[in-house]
Amino acid sequence: MSEWRDFKLDEVCDEIVDCVNKTAPKVNYETPYKMVRTTNVRDGRINLSNVNHVTKETYQKWTRRSIPQKDDVILTREAPLGEVGIITTDEKVFLGQRLMQYRANNRKVDPKFLYYSLRGPFLQNQMKAHEGSGSTVSHIRVPDAKRFKIKLPPMDIQNKITSILWSIDKKIETNTKINHTLEQIAMTLYKHWLLILDHSRTVSL
């Protein structure tokens, strides 16, 4: 059996970056620069359909520590604690408040293996054990977010595991989109037939 070893997250990541701890000034029109908030990170996904937009200058200021890129993993430190997503786009996004950005060292950990590990019980239990005290809001301290331990097998095993899991996730995502489309079609037809029925009643009267 292949050996799994424990590592600290900062031992297997090239970057672990905290957000800028103040709210970026948003604009009321669309720009290429999108702010990821904690509300956008849910159920293993980063949803960019409802984001705040900022100017290029704000984007550059808020990404001076690191520019988020595809395959970076995002963790919510607070409100809620422990939600995880992975960036799957080349769009210009940046971190809102209470978020952490992990960039995997590809020689040590597959980015998607890091993503699945952060969602798994081994790391989630560590997060809950390190919740900040003295506050009514559960949160993870930045130093703790860097020192959590991850269990890693050799890279070839990581790649095989993530290949299977990612393939399943993509199928689930496709089916969800199909179901959503079918629901929209069904609702449109339902409303259409209601209009016909109402019209028929009006004519009969």
From TrEMBL:
<keyword id="KW-0238">DNA-binding</keyword>
<dbReference type="GO" id="GO:0004519">
    <property type="term" value="F:endonuclease activity"/>
</dbReference>
<dbReference type="InterPro" id="IPR052021">
    <property type="entry name" value="Type-I_RS_S_subunit"/>
</dbReference>
<keyword id="KW-0540">Nuclease</keyword>
<dbReference type="InterPro" id="IPR000055">
    <property type="entry name" value="Restrct_endonuc_typeI_TRD"/>
</dbReference>
<dbReference type="GO" id="GO:0016787">
    <property type="term" value="F:hydrolase activity"/>
</dbReference>
<protein>
    <submittedName>
        <fullName>Restriction endonuclease subunit S</fullName>
        <ecNumber>3.1.21.-</ecNumber>
    </submittedName>
</protein>
<keyword id="KW-0680">Restriction system</keyword>
<comment type="similarity">
    <text>Belongs to the type-I restriction system S methylase family.</text>
</comment>
<feature type="domain" description="Type I restriction modification DNA specificity">
    <location>
        <begin position="1"/>
        <end position="184"/>
    </location>
</feature>
<keyword id="KW-0378">Hydrolase</keyword>
<dbReference type="Pfam" id="PF01420">
    <property type="entry name" value="Methylase_S"/>
</dbReference>
<keyword id="KW-0255">Endonuclease</keyword>
<dbReference type="InterPro" id="IPR044946">
    <property type="entry name" value="Restrct_endonuc_typeI_TRD_sf"/>
</dbReference>
